[in-house]
Amino acid sequence: MAHYLFLLIGAVLVNNVVLVKILGLCPFMGVSKKLETAYGMGAATTFVLTLATGASFIIDHYLLIPFGLEYLRTLSFIVTIAAIVQLTEMVIAKTSPMLQQVLGIYLPLITTNCAVLGVPLINISHSYGFMESLLFGAGSAIGFSLVLVLFAGIRERVDGAEVPLPFKGAAIAMVTAGLMSLAFMGFAGLDRY
Amino acid sequence: MEIVTSPHVLKPVSITRVMGQVCLALLPGIAVYSWLIGPALLLQLGIASLTALAAEALLLKLRGKPVSPFLMDGSALVTAWLIALTFPPLSPWWLTATGVLFAIVIAKQLYGGLGQNPFNPAMVAFAACIVAFPALMSQWPAQGLSLSFGQQLEVVFGLAPRIDALTAATPLDAMKTALKMDGVHASVQELLANQTLYGTFAGRGWEWVTSAYLLGGLFLLWRRVITWHVPVAFVLGLLLISGLCWSLDPARYADPLFHLFSGGAMLGAFFIATDPVSGCTTPRGKLIFGFGAGALAYLIRVFGAFPDGIAFAVLIMNLCAPLIDLFCQPAVFGKKKEAP
Predict the structure, then answer these.
(1) CB contact A2 to B (< 8 Å)
(2) Which single residue of A72, B21, B34, B188 has CA 20 to 30 Å from A107?
């Protein structure tokens, strides 16, 4: 039990996808201008990333490794992720139009989110089991959403600040992201004891 | 309760006045600290203040703002003093100067100066320097070290070689290292019995420095420069979680009193976490902010990779402050509360 807890803490805080692994920066910068969009993107990514990590684990263990096709990992994971995103979108459109409205454009955008490809690949390199993979995927996704929402909150505050002209917009967002990453270094070492 | 009739005379509240009182409240701590360490601390305070004022003036000029009114508000001075007090007193002059520059230029002026920075500048400087220069940032003067003013001057300005014998870890860091060492099963009680290092309750010498900070903090409370929410919640957070660990295994976790009075806990509770700019503004938000900072500080200093956790705990809570405030907005009088 403690092992799973530390795995989760490690994925969410200590090895945060965005601030420590520096993955998924495009949505991190792109959809963090408003809190509402950040919620939507976070929810959609959490859903897809958890599924993608689990599915790519299954593909890797039951298809690629038995046939010695490990070199096709990147390619097959991309296809898997795209398929999952499409399937999710179709299911949501049929069953819950409201959820579809909330997730909106973010769902198809996730296909090109490098964190969604990166996390399954990192997961394979850790050689986790199936349950651990699911937990690692979910933890990474929760870490992504957490940081995205916190960043959106800070950006809304910084929007009102009197930032010098050359630093307005993306530049100060980059500085803020850097300082956030610095703050997250404080979590180092908390995932093992 | 004394009832006073009008007319009332208003006492003007200015930033200069508030910052002046914060500096005043730091004085007992500075006095005890420099009596313990020697004049090197005063030297560091001087270096930090000069760098801060110069950087602030330059940045204000670059941004086309009036220099003297903003310079006179004293906020740069408070940042500089906090940096000088949290950095090791014998650190080379350029380390303090780098920290101050990072704080004033990046953490403060890039965001538009006083009142607009989302992170506490002094803690950004501390975190940046401990990540970039981990060895220098953990070399504290060894116990019973007595250097003349000239020798301290030489060490700070890099004229004399930095000898390892001069420096040691803080009691807090020493205890953490001793407990984590493999093969050695020293319990906390055995370690604490070593009075020359750990003093009577929280590290020889350090316990009196932090007590002096507490005194200064109480002065700030009395002058109503800060409200009670953050310090009380901070101490409560630290007490609760350190008490929990201590009651579970007193041989592996030091008692709450040790944690309250060692490292930067008191400075953090009264002077750093109470920063009105980067912290929360709503009363309930302040309680959450303080509690979170206290609890995180304990977790990071005991289980984490750094000697003390105050700086990172405050920065992490700074990150959460806008959201905490959003969810803690008090209802407008006469209106039903709306969900944010």
Answers:
(1) no
(2) A72
Facing A164 at nearest CB: one of B63, B117, B300: B63
- Cβ atoms of A186 and A16 within 8 Å: the answer is no
Residue B306 forms contact with A (CB below 8 Å): yes
- Interchain contact, A186 vs B312, CB within 8 Å: yes
pTM: 0.91
Does A153 contact chain B (CB < 8 Å)? yes
Terminal C-alpha separation, chain A:
14
Token pair of A107, please? 């769902």
Residue B287 backbone phi and psi in degrees, to 5: -60, -45
* Cβ separation A183–B319 shorter than 8 A: yes
Closest-CA residue of chain B to A162: B112
Q: What is the pLDDT of residues A145-156, one digit of tens each?
A: 999 999 999 999
Range of the domain at A176: 19-185
Residue B276 in contact with partner chain A when CB distance is under 8 A? no
Distance between CA A59 and CA A73 in Å, rounded?
A: 9
Q: Specify if A11 maps to a domain.
A: no
d(Cα B320, Cα A4) in Å, to the nearest integer?
Answer: 26
Q: Is residue A10 part of a domain?
A: no
Over residues B270-328, the pLDDT tens digits come to: 999 999 899 999 999 999 999 999 999 999 999 888 888 899 999 999 999 999 999 88
A9 to chain B nearest CA, in Å?
13
Question: Which chain B positions have a beta carbon within 8 Å of A19's beta carbon?
Answer: none
Say yes or no for a CB contact (<8 Å) between B309 and A186: yes
Residue A137 lies in a domain: yes
- CA-to-CA distance for B296 and A24, rounded, in angstroms? 27
Contact B118 A182 (CB under 8 A): no
Structural domains of chain A, count: 1
Dig out the tokens for B129 from the structure.
């320097």
**Cα–Cα distance for residue pair B164/A184, rounded to 1 Å:** 30
Of A161, A185, A189, the CB nearest to B111: A161
For position B97, what pLDDT does the model report?
Answer: 96
Is A3 contained in some domain? no
CB-nearest partner of B106 from A161, A175, A189: A175
CB A27 within 8 A of CB A105: no
Q: Tell me the β-bridge partners of B140.
A: B168
One digit per residue, the tens of pLDDT, for chain B of length 340 reads: 677 787 777 777 788 888 999 999 999 999 999 888 888 899 999 999 999 999 999 999 999 888 888 888 889 999 999 999 999 988 899 999 999 999 999 999 999 888 899 999 999 999 999 999 998 888 888 766 677 777 788 888 877 777 665 677 777 887 777 777 655 566 777 777 776 667 767 777 788 899 999 999 999 999 988 999 999 999 999 999 999 999 998 888 888 888 888 888 999 999 999 998 999 999 999 999 999 999 999 999 998 888 888 999 999 999 999 999 998 888 777 776 555 5
